[in-house]
Amino acid sequence: MTFETQAGSFLISDYRTLHRGTQNPHNSSRPVIVLVYGRLWWSDWGNYPPAKRRDMEGNLIPSVDPALSELDEIQAAVLRLKLEAQMMATESVEEGARAILQQLLANAWANNSNNNSNNHNNHNNNNSKTDAGKLGTASSELGTASSDPDTGLGPLKPVSVPDECLSLNSSNNNSNNNSNNNSSNNINNLSLCMGGFLSTGRLTSSMCQCLQDPNLVILKIDNTSETIISEVERETYLQATFLVARFLEQNAVHSTYVLPPRMLETIFEECPSYSLQDTRPIHFMFHTTYCGSTLMSRALAEMSFLPVREPAIYLYAVHQYLSIPESKAKLRQAVLDGMAWWLGRRYHDHEVPLVKAHDAWLMPEIIGHLSRRRDSRMLFVYNDLMTHCLQLAIHQGDRYDVEDQWLSQARADDVNVRVELQKLELARLSLMEMRAVQWTIRMVHYTEAVLQHPAEVLGIYAEEFLDEPSRVLMQVSRFLGRNVLQNEVDQVVKGGLFERYSKADPGVSHEFNEEKRAERFIDAMEKYDQEVKECRAFGRRFVESVASVSHQFRELLTLV
């Protein structure tokens, strides 16, 4: 949008809008305000060259100078929280954004004339905070940055936040609660926790204290995108957390917050010091797609197990976008060592935590974790290749359950598997062929885990679980260190869970018996015969190529 202020005329746009062509800031004489994943930037000349990376929606992502000072990024993040609260309390979103941005830009423009001298003084007085490659950190000043070497983007300047936008204290929050509606109250409460402490400099301790709140859940962490903090009751969390995030988002008031990578590293190095020092083991479950793992999780949840998703820091996007190898290693080690702290606030003394991992990329990390914690266990629930292909053909188009789509990022510790992956022209593979590769990668991880930790890893073939659920649940419970009685297991199996099971909605009736399951299988095989043949044939060739150079994977041939 465009509006006039005492500082001049401005064009406001999100980077997605720019790339979609609905606004064209090129060759514009007006300054341009650009929202890049929650950070607010402005350019004097209105030139916005294209970037090389794309987000998951296919939009080009502008590159931002990695030497940005932490304080400037914090200020932009707090501004975004304040903007959300303002817009939630205003009938017109544009009016709400206009009001807060007018105040912001007027302040920034007024200080622009003194920018050079202020930057010079700040550099002399704050060498510990800034250097030649970083931006100034004063809350009301504008710094400069060098061009981006990849995109040629000129010096972008972060729009600093006035002190008024940083004063999110308890008294201000109470006044907001009296004047705003319920939605903005919730946003402001969350903003207070995640943003109010930033002006005091007590970042690490305050963040750790916020994350210990039993009603706050981190759904996503990404240093280039938005960290989603959701406020959700424990009961809702227990029902949905090991499913996809959309179930939580439907029942949660959430705000967004941006954390730069250096800050993430600091937080996850320091937060374990706040740990409950819980010594109980934490177990893990990995799986292929549509194999009954969610049904098994629900059954175990009725036997004093607590299935939860992996902490969001594990998700691949974090490691994908962190460019410094040392930071990756520190983050991984810090979070693995602090796993009990992340989950300790959500389970009780009688519950056994079971991380039902959403991302198969985590499997090699957990294999290393098993080496350090011999009392931890790993389950792997899987289908054979034909059933895997059939299930994916049946559910094709469900984007929430198509995992590991970006196969160029797939990881296998075995060097021979990586070599075989590199031989594939991934861009030319059909969707079913890509899913066959997906299955192979997961099975390779499982095989590696069994070879390294045979006593700590248990594989569950999906057909065996569906045919004999009582026997398999008893086996799994004892493997995870809980001695349950047979009548407890029988009660769970006969209690209606299997009859009413539905992955999409636990309350939807769904017949689950052997006869009808066999009928559906035959009907589906006839309907999707061509897709299954394509997927299976390609998968077998790929597994054979892997097994031919790495003999430890020959057993996979029995499943294709």
From TrEMBL:
The lineage of its organism: Eukaryota, Sar, Alveolata, Dinophyceae, Suessiales. InterPro entries: P-loop_NTPase. Residues 111-159, 164-183 are annotated as: Disordered. This is Uncharacterized protein. PANTHER family: LIM ZINC-BINDING DOMAIN-CONTAINING PROTEIN, LIM ZINC-BINDING DOMAIN-CONTAINING PROTEIN-RELATED. Residues 137-149 have a biased composition (Polar residues). Residues 111-128, 166-183 have a biased composition (Low complexity). It comes from Polarella glacialis. It comes from the Eukaryota.
